[in-house]
Structures
1.
Amino acid sequence: MCRRNGQQGQSLATLHTFGYDDPPMDPAEPADPRVSVRRRNMRLRSGVVALLLLLFGAAALWTWHERALTKLGELFVEETPPAPADLVAVFDNEVPAAAAAADVLANGYAPRILLFKPPPAAEEKLLDRLGIPVPSRHELAILVLRRSGVAPEAIVVEPVTEVDTSVAVQTTARYARSHDATRVIVITYRSHTRRTALLLRRALGRSAVVIVRASPDDPFHPEGWWRDRRQSRELIMESIRWVNSLLLGDLWRK
């Protein structure tokens, strides 16, 4: 009995010697309190620097946001000064675009206007079934041109599969090559002008002259587009069209 109690006492003494009865130390806690204070000070300084940078960035964005957003809008716009050309292509068949094309002819810059005739839309088919006489978009453009004094023989209508910038570019290039037209004026949406110019110059070749214009009544303006929901939506959609046309090879038509 005494021998056993002696062995137990010796074991307890051994455990106490190796520190097994001490509370475990947190490995994340530094042994020296000064190290913990130093780390907290470093985190505090880093937080203050990050906050100052955030405030500076917000102030810079507030100060120069109009200039930066205007530059962003200008990336999508190219409006070349008018010059003599062989024809005017109206890419969107809208009334303001048709009126702008009529002004181009009235000022003597081109002898004829090219319009595009897509298949009837669903609403046009419905109106036709109901017997409601409503002109299609290209017919309305022709009415605007005729009322603006454009002669019938100066209006050319080319059928297309759909209303699309890439389709209009290919149709215009095909017509221009078949009629020896090397100088082309295009009337399109202002937000489409730069992409249209790039695609048409690629299709016609380096020797061709491409002049891209928008109607004066076009609602998109690089200055202040972010204040209007419609213009903001149009800029976002045009960004997607750039990706589709230049990076994806017009995936939507495949």
2.
Amino acid sequence: MNKSKSKTELPDELILFLGKLADLRDPYISDHATHVRDLSVQLAIRVNFPSRKIKALSHAALLHDIGKLVLPEQIVNKPSRLTEAEYLMVQQHTVLGYKLISPLEMDAMIGGTILSHHENFDGSGYPYGLVGEAIPLEARIVRITDFYDALICQRPYREAFTAGSALDLLLKNRRCFDPALLEAFLHIQAEEHRLNREIRKRPMTTKISAQMLYEMP
């Protein structure tokens, strides 16, 4: 009698460790995985993403770049722009990441997000050139948050973008993103930066306001 296999539920701490392990391959993007997780969960809540799926989305965002673990270190940490051939190799990290976690039989959302988080809404992305809603919703969320956080991280060949400049680039590349998700993300960022400015104008007279300021990006 055949028994159906249940999904593997890895401990949260292990998922976080694996995400940070991928970040450690590139010293210029420290905490990128956790930033993408936090931004993705925030965006998902804003667009009424099913609450029962938030944990899997969180894990998917943490692991989105895990495929970079199997790329040559001299390419991941190259201190200059990649050649076309090197860039094509880096593009394989989505498929490699998917294959890496497949034996774990985790929630299908996690593998789908890892595989598709570089697909563009207009079909110009990789690895398969999926278009629009053929791209999993979770991957469309991470596409935006990963793009944004990568811009505000310093790279060996460029300085980090300011939050405002990164948002401008999101708009200039809007063809790559789900329009409704992009609009929601822009609203979130506008609200956060408005609150940031308001808090910084106030005298720091209480412990609560000091803590709020500390937590601002």
3.
Amino acid sequence: MRPLLPALFLIAFTSLALAAPSVDLSKPLTLRFTAVDGRQVDLAALRGKVVLIDFWSSANPACQQNEFQVARAYRKYNAEGFEIIGISEDKDKQALLTLIQNYGMYWPQYFDGLGKRNLLATRWGVTLIPTMWLVNQKGMVVNTNVGDDLGAQVKKLLNLP
């Protein structure tokens, strides 16, 4: 049993290393695309707002569960200056559109149909979903590992009491 421990640690640390995003945290994030609903999205136009970049898939049960937390934060803080941009790792466009409708996800969604080979997730080294990044009012990624405390983090970035 002892010889397995080093191997298990190696696997765990390798997984963490693979999950680490490769985004330049020293300058504002650049993100422009046409959303699945036809909207033009430009992160630079959202300066002055706190933005969640949400990497997810409608086919992933953990992502589906996570979207409840995301939608709750959106409803609570959107009027205060909080926006969301979804990065869908779906292959099935209709499944994505159905879930968006059923969950009331009114924010723009990037969709390219490539699934895990999604161009944006690949560009930034996002290999695990759900993954959420928070972008501050200056366009800087301030957290690449948003957890269950999304609401509290958004509230803090918005400087709300």
